[in-house]
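Q: Could you write out the predicted structure for this multi-component system? I'm mainly interested in how the pieces pack against one another.
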Amino acid sequence: MSDSDGAAIGVIGGSGFYSLLDGITEVAVDTPYGAPSDKLLIGELAGRRVAFLPRHGRSHSLPPHRINYRANLWALRAVGVRQVVAPCATGGLRPEFGPGTLVVPDQLVDRTYGREQTFYDGEPRADGLRPNVVHIPLADPYCPAGRQQAVAVARRAGWEPQDGGTLVVIQGPRFSTRAESRWHAAQGWSVVGMTGYPEATLARELGLCYTSIAMVTDLDAGVEVGEGVTHEEVLKVFSENIERLRTVILDLVTELPAERNCLCSKALDGVDTGLLLP
Ligand SMILES: [Zn+2]
């Protein structure tokens, strides 16, 4: 791969953002874990090389539990990405976190199951490499530098974000029951989504920065008064806010620090992974 095909920054999700890139190319990446959700769309934005990856595929055909998260993160790293920005749609777990609220979470709770969530599973890969047992720290799952910049960019756009909060990731594809939702809220968690895990931990396992930007599309079932969230409501709020979300994501992409000095960049220092990371 030549330099002109690569990118330093990756955005997972954000369909419809590609038209703003210059000199866009589609790059198919194969990985030791299979194919990512789709081809990467790589181009230039204000002098920064950016790769977009539609999380659910361009035809939105992959439900959250069927996404090949390992292939997605590996493919991004393979084209040179070291910083990942990950917008996602979420349900609000507090009455004040209504539709249109922007949350830049600083904590994560995993309530998924059965997903491939590590590169270091001790299993030999098809290429003969066998990963070592690696225990990656995830006390602070998000890049502190990316978070700080995301908050600043949203604020400047006049979209006062929640600076911090806990994203609980459920298996889906169904939404929560009221009892589950009330339980999540009672823990003090902020928003609920379906894709933030294992994305965050896989990014850390590859030494990538990962910044989550959670947009609230609905009040979750235990918080709202009514029939419960529907997919139509989610799509409606998403389309109403897509323009300003686009502005925030694109500003963030162009303003991420060029030099990394965060804990994510040092996650693999002194670690023998047994793998050859691209
Ligand atoms: Zn970082």
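A: Regarding packing and overall arrangement: The domain at 3-118+136-266 is CATH 3.40.50.1580 (Rossmann fold).
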